Amino acid sequence: MVRLGIGVAALLVALVPPARSEAPRVLLFTETAGFVHPSIADGIAMISELADEEGFLLDVTDASDGFFTPRALALYDTVVWLSTTLDVLDVAEQGAFEGFVQAGGGWVGIHAAADCEYEWPWYGGLLGNGAWFDSHPAIQEALLELEGAGEPGAGSFPASRPMTEEWYNFQANPRPAVTVVLTVDESTYDPGPGAMGPDHPIAWHHHWDGGRAFYTALGHRPETYADPDFRSQIRAAILWTAGALLFEDGFESGSTDGWSATVP
Question: How many whole angstroms separate alpha carbon 157 and alpha carbon 144?
Answer without folding.
Answer: 9
